[in-house]
TrEMBL record:
It comes from the Bacteria. This is 2-keto-3-deoxy-L-rhamnonate aldolase RhmA. PANTHER family: 2-KETO-3-DEOXY-L-RHAMNONATE ALDOLASE, PHOSPHOENOLPYRUVATE CARBOXYLASE FAMILY PROTEIN. Gene3D superfamilies: Phosphoenolpyruvate-binding domains. It comes from Aminobacter niigataensis.
Length: 251
């Protein structure tokens, strides 16, 4: 009886959801989560987001907390990427949460990116150790290795002049699927419109996705994932708006 209840359908991937949105002609919206809480993920899902990027720079989240946030994402049919320092071990442990992919921060060169990405894939494509997140336990290890090779999404944070200078070469890597440039978030500088356009162009030329502010509208619309900022910033804005409203009504 227990075996009959085991799931038979592999978890969806970010590739699946992006392709579906493109097929349906619908927008795909994302949000950076700086508040390490499963409730923040749930609110994102209720609010109509399609993707969350879990970022713990401002509040160091434990492995257990990230696990809980990824599970909450699945429960609301959200895709979840997890920010990661650019070393293979950290990349591997981030993906062990069951997240659909990672956003690599602090890349110093193309070779550094290649070395870090090896932590995302199993041999012969990388050096990830044999382990399966709970959500994938119904798969054999061979099936999970094949699923990972097809579906793990690797995104590079354009968080320095070095990364921007190499953005075309990084986008050309087969194991890189996206570029993220969000001024003031994820460690990104305050990129100009021209610099954001360069990121968008590099992604479009190589058939990759660019994760850019929703306010930015370049020509390569089909390759853009619109990001609404961060939950922390939205919460601050909401508090300020509420305070202004209360002060106005009390005058």
């Amino acid at each position: 009886m227990i075996s009959a209840l085991k799931p038979k359908i592999a978890p969806y991937s970010l590739f699946d959801r992006l392709a579906l949105a493109e097929h349906d002609g619908t927008s795909f919206r994302g949000l950076v989560l700086e508040i390490p809480s499963a409730a923040a993920v749930e609110i994102s899902g209720i609010g109509g987001c399609d993707l969350v990027v879990i970022e713990d720079t401002h509040a160091d989240a434990s492995r257990q907390r990230i696990d809980e946030m990824v599970r909450a994402a699945y429960s609301h049919s959200l895709c979840a990427l997890v920010a990661s320092e650019a070393d293979p071990w950290t990349v591997m442990t981030r993906l062990d949460t069951g997240a659909q992919g990672v956003v690599l921060k602090g890349i110093r060169s193309v070779q550094h990116a290649i070395a870090a990405i090896e932590g995302a894939f199993f041999p012969p494509h990388g050096h990830r150790e044999a382990n399966k997140p709970l959500r994938f336990q119904f798969m054999s290890m061979t099936e999970f290795v094949e699923w990972t090779a097809r579906n793990v999404f690797v995104c590079i944070a354009v968080d320095s002049e070095k990364v921007l200078g190499n953005v075309e070469d990084l986008a050309a890597l087969e194991t890189v699927h996206g570029l993220l440039a969000l001024p003031g978030l994820m460690g990104c500088p305050s990129w100009s419109s021209a610099e954001l356009s360069r990121v968008a162009s590099a992604a479009a030329i190589h058939g990759k996705r660019a994760f850019l502010p929703s306010s930015f509208a370049p020509e390569q619309q089909h390759s853009i994932v619109k990001m609404a900022g961060s939950d922390r910033a939205l919460l601050i804005d909401a508090y300020q708006s509420t305070a202004q409203y209360l002060r106005a009504t009390q005058e």
